[in-house]
Design a protein that fits this description.
The chain is an alpha+beta fold. Helices cover 49% and strands 9% of the residues.
Length: 187
């Protein structure tokens, strides 16, 4: 391993409330800013688990973020949202877009399968709706999302959220607590 540590990679799907909580935690105290890598859970063969809503709500409260408002459909079909996150990443706005989309889903209770929700999240981070509409239709954006999923598979991601720390992979429940020291987070 080189003297310079590799940048951690945070793998997430916008439709997953556990990814939302991890994202909020990572974004609030980034001593080490990981690369945010949007991936489509279903492309990784990850089947959404039943959500323990009271536990998610309690963790959101402990983080001091807005109370959770659940979208009517959970999990949402996140493909369009994940294409949008990939498009935003190409423009250096992965973190801003992803946080806006997570908050639309889990603080405002909006469905990420609804294109208007995706466009609203884009507008929150200054991505024009026309640019977003064109961006999510680009073959290169779809290919970039597929490549991100392939990279996630190659490092062994089998649960989300996940954080790759060099050769180590921390994933699933409690990812932030288990990756805290590497990310420079106080837990």
């Amino acid at each position: 391993m080189s003297a310079r540590a590799e940048q951690p990679v945070f793998y997430y799907d916008l439709a997953d409330p556990a990814c939302y909580l991890a994202a909020e935690r990572i974004a609030t105290a980034p001593a080490v800013l990981p690369e945010w890598e949007p991936v489509l859970a279903r492309s990784l063969g990850i089947v959404p688990a039943a959500v323990d809503r009271p536990a998610v709500e309690a963790q959101a409260a402990s983080l001091g973020i807005q109370p959770v408002r659940w979208p009517a459909r959970l999990p949402s079909d996140s493909e369009t949202a994940m294409l949008a996150a990939t498009f935003a990443k190409r423009g250096g706005r992965a973190v801003a877009f992803s946080l806006a989309a997570f908050r639309q889903a889990f603080a405002a209770g909006r469905d990420l399968g609804d294109l208007d929700t995706v466009l609203l999240a884009g507008a929150a981070c200054e991505i024009h709706p026309t640019a977003m509409l064109k961006g999510i239709q680009l073959r290169g954006v779809r290919a970039a999302l597929e490549q991100a999923c392939a990279r996630a598979r190659s490092v062994g991601v089998g649960a989300l959220p996940a954080v790759a720390l060099g050769a180590d992979l921390v994933q699933g429940a409690g990812v932030i607590e288990r990756a805290a020291s590497a990310l420079g987070l106080g837990v």
